[in-house]
Design a protein that fits this description.
The protein has 229 residues and is an alpha/beta fold. Helices cover 35% and strands 25% of the residues. Helix 3 (103-115) packs across helix 4 (131-145) and helix 4 (131-145) packs parallel to helix 5 (161-178). The chain binds adenosine-5'-triphosphate.
């Protein structure tokens, strides 16, 4: 469980407040543009520090912990793949950034590439793959890191609808298998409905406690209604 205990984070003239607990499982993060969704993820990832409050993961205070030491992996919209490395090397970096992988680790890379439907692409470079395949490489790297907290910021926004729903289904399956806790920022209510039983609404600099996705989107509060159109 991830607890936001009386958090206040200041960024320029903007403040983000959060005071709730996030249970294990899949969560969408939804809210108008500029409401603070990416800021919330940056707080959990350790890239921004709160001026007040604590962030607690499974009873451990991680407020001051460096990003690389947190139990967190992040999947960004721009997949941050290294163009000069092969697919297998890009994925292997999830295990060891220096890429000194032993036999068992190399086998795990092969296995996770199979899982995301990329068996046979290990020796290619990202530039030789489609956008959807590149997204899967980034997903494979995140899965291999196997951190219990997964942050996704509009991860599949660039994909077509069919590929996107395929990736969301794959991600849901793997998250359920691993028992991870996920926060996924999305602008698409259909993605939130498909992926996340619970949604964190971010409204005017306040992140609200997660609530059931369907009812929230069926009857959104005025700000969210205006944003969703
Ligand atoms: N580096 C910064 N310095 C000062 N203010 C910032 C900075 N980055 C973002 N902000 C402000 O913080 C607020 C929240 O930004 P954030 O990116 O979290 O919103 P968001 O909900 O993710 O928006 P979007 O949906 O448009 O990506 C915005 O009002 C933005 O102007």
């Amino acid at each position: 469980m991830l607890e936001f205990r009386d958090i206040l984070l200041r960024q320029g003239g903007f403040t983000l407040a959060a005071d709730f607990a996030l249970p294990q499982g899949r969560h969408a993060v939804i809210g108008a543009s500029g409401s603070g969704k990416s800021t919330l993820l940056a707080l959990v990832g350790g890239f921004l520090s709160p001026e007040r409050g604590r962030l607690v993961w499974d009873g451990q205070d991680i407020t001051g912990m460096a990003p690389g030491r947190r139990p967190v992996s992040t999947l960004f919209q721009h997949h941050n793949l290294f163009p000069h490395l092969t697919v297998a090397q890009n994925v292997g970096m999830g295990l060891r950034p220096d890429l000194r992988l032993d036999r068992a680790q190399k086998d795990r890379v092969t296995q996770v590439l199979e899982e995301v439907g990329l068996g046979g692409t290990a020796d290619r470079r990202p530039g030789a793959l489609s956008g959807g395949q590149q997204g899967r490489v980034a997903l494979a790297r995140v899965l291999l890191r196997a951190r219990p907290l997964l942050l996704l910021d509009e991860p599949f926004a660039a994909l077509g609808p069919a590929l996107k729903s395929e990736m969301l289904a794959l991600l849901s399956r793997i998250v359920d298998e691993t028992g991870a806790t996920v926060l996924m920022v999305t602008h698409d209510p259909a993605d939130a409905r498909a992926f996340a039983p619970l949604t964190v609404l971010v409204e005017d600099g306040r992140a609200h406690a997660p609530c059931p996705t369907g009812p929230l989107l069926d009857d959104p509060p005025p700000g969210l209604r205006a944003y969703l159109g």
